[in-house]
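Re: duplicated header lines in exported structure tokens

Our pipeline writes sequence and tokens for each protein into one text file. With two proteins the header for the second block appears twice in some exports. Here is an export where it did not happen, for reference. First protein block:
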Amino acid sequence: MVESLNGWWKLAGVDSAVDELPVNWLEVGVRNESVGNQQPPTQATQVVAKAAPSEPAIEWPNDIEGVRQKVVSGAPLPGNSFGSRYMPSVGPSQPDVMIVSDVPDPDDLDLGSLLNGASGQLLRRMMHAIGVDIDKCHWATLATTRPSTGEIPETEFAGLAKFMLHQLQLVRPKTVILLGSTASYALLGEELMKARQNLGNINHGGITLPVLTTFHPRTLIARPALKAQAWRDLQMFAKRSQV
């Protein structure tokens, strides 16, 4: 574990830890602590799901395996019609941690899994550095196909968020990690840099899920200087979940 952390410190350019007080972040309703010089608000941000502008084209499955089967069959689910290659979620159906990002990367589609591409491999190392096995996490994308531009049109955010909230209700993780600005804005209604300063909550279907927001690994690959900030985000997660 120490070797993993030291390895990430070198990779991220970080020399010292931030904060030493462990708090169980997997408990619902826990408030954020300070990270560096950031001062979070005294109360957690609460986000209530908003209705999508249109009804789903088909009835949504009531279990996550059914969702996966519909995705790979090309069913007209939200986010499943941007392309002809489909990327279902990966990981167990009842995890402690659920990861949500925007779209599959090209190499994810080429290799057949979110975990096999460059972003997935980097995320695996990042999570391992804080003692979390990514194979025990559930990872889903807002869009299960990739738009030609590589970005989800903002007009699609509401419908995709509603479908992702449905999946969160099926999976019922203890906590959620959002990767990147699109996932942050669609599910929290906040820009990435603002969302990173707060411990947010997603409230939906009678459940409240604490949320950590950080950079997508593809952004860290393109801009390595941001790795130090990403490490601070993950270190906060590690201390609060006492891994």
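Second protein block, exported in the same file:
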Amino acid sequence: MLKKRVISAIIGILLLIFLVFSGSFPFFLTVSVIVSLAVREYNRMLNIESKTLKSIISVAAVLIVFNVYLISNDFNYLPSGIIFFIIIFALYLYNLNNYQEENFIKNISHQLFSVIYIGGGLSFAVFLRDLNQGPFFATSALWLVLIATWLTDSGAYFVGKKYGKTPMAPVISPNKTVAGAVGGILTTALFIILTALFFEVLNIYYFIFAFTFPVIAILGDLFESCVKRSFGVKDTGTIIPGHGGILDRFDSFIFTAPFTYYFIILLLG
């Protein structure tokens, strides 16, 4: 399992480096593909069979990403309120045409949640890639989030495997331990603090960010575990050998990306 994880990680990192530096539009296309695959995994967990509904959810999620691409590149874009009205109205029309009295609210809630959670969360990858504010330039904000998220996951995995005894959330995810969480937090906090020192930008906000970021990453991981447990699945997919599905790999990033973006905009930039 570890060998598969390492090989998949190396291939993924090399591919990601190429795609991130290939330009804003190619990266938007990359994120759109990732979002579509993640939505497909979620649709599978929801047992959605309708091709029409699958298409609506996928297009809606990608529409959010596309609007973010327009915003981050100073193109004309639609206000977020209009985007969400279009998405909600499209889902409403589908569920009205396929009306199920007992499941109407449940169905539309699940569908809307998948669009916001996946499309909304992953769209911040585009924001971060194009962010130029304060000490963050070119693609540096995106790399900060990707590396710090990976370090949290890796630190928690290896420390937990070596020293973990007490489960952090025994009902939600029995394999996650308190020691692993501490290891992930300290690993990432050290990386962020050293990075800030290297670029001579360290201040109290970076200290707060350094210790808050890995906590957000762990909460994102736990959230996905809650989702999977509610659907009775172990992994959301098998597309990434050793890692599971797209959502298994990007669960923490969906939380850390928006958190970092707004932290930079409000405090670090």
